[in-house]
Design a protein that fits this description.
The complex is a heterodimer. By secondary structure, chain A is mainly β. Helix content of chain A is about 0%, strand content about 50%. Helix content of chain B is about 0%, strand content about 50%. Chain B is built from no helices and eleven strands. In chain B, a hairpin with a 6-residue loop joins strand 4 and strand 5. The chains are: A mainly beta, B mainly beta. At the A-B interface, strand 6, strand 10 and strand 11 of A face strand 5 and strand 10 of B.
Chain lengths: ~110, ~120
């Protein structure tokens, strides 16, 4: 079965600092991985996804993630945090049959001025 | 273009009442998903439709939960005899096609509070 672990339920960074949100996955098949962002009282918005092409994936709003098979990781990074990045971030893996996404518990990102 | 819409956005129900939550997917999207998001947690899968066919309902927590998509477009999630533990945000998502790499587009959710 597929599963996702997000290390750190809360991450706090200063504006302009590096953002690093951690995601480790478990999958019985080659994984397809997704990062979504959720702003208060809104649905989830796709930031980026890995679908077995390039291991470094670039997404919207300056975010990127690197797929590392040896570490079973798909960490999300952004070189310089902006106040508007404050939100909750979810990592997800597609299940074996493509019928659903399996989500991690989420990481709340706080950006300090 | 129009995204996934859900209604109502907020619903307060007394314990024991039946509720119906509506999802309008992106036009032409084949796949439709329902997820339940409890406070402070990630979304958890409830059920999946491909057109009008409900192919996976393994995530429905009890037989009080029922979903349909009769014409392969709009979907309704119905919860009978609501309980306090049903309080959560119910998210609907749609994707253009079936497949593990397909992007799911999410609606804003319906926040259900059962008193």
């Amino acid at each position: 079965a597929q599963s996702v672990t997000q290390l750190g339920s809360h991450v706090s960074v200063s504006e302009g600092a590096l953002v690093l949100l951690r995601c480790n996955y478990s999958s019985s098949v080659p994984p397809y991985l997704f990062w979504y962002v959720q702003y208060p009282n809104q649905g989830l918005q796709l930031l980026l996804k890995y679908t077995s092409a390039a291991t470094l994936v670039k997404g919207i709003n300056g975010f990127e993630a690197e797929f590392k098979k040896s570490e079973t990781s798909f960490h999300l990074t952004k070189p310089s945090a902006h106040m508007s990045d404050a939100a909750e971030y979810f990592c997800a893996v597609s299940d074996r049959g493509g019928n659903k996404l399996v989500f991690g518990a989420g990481t709340i990102l706080r950006v300090k001025s | 273009g129009a995204g996934v819409s859900q209604s109502p956005r907020y619903k307060v129900a007394k314990r024991g009442q039946d509720v119906a939550l509506r999802c309008d997917p992106i036009s032409g999207h084949v796949s439709l998903f329902w997820y339940q998001q409890a406070l402070g947690q990630g979304p958890e899968f409830l059920t999946y439709f491909q057109n009008e066919a409900q192919l996976d309902k393994s995530g429905l927590p009890s037989d009080r939960f029922f979903a349909e998509r009769p014409e392969g477009s709009v979907s309704t999630l119905k919860i009978q005899r609501t309980q306090q533990e049903d309080s959560a945000v119910y998210l609907c998502a749609s994707s253009r096609d079936r497949g593990r790499s397909e992007t799911q587009y999410f609606g804003p959710g319906t926040r259900l509070l059962v008193l």
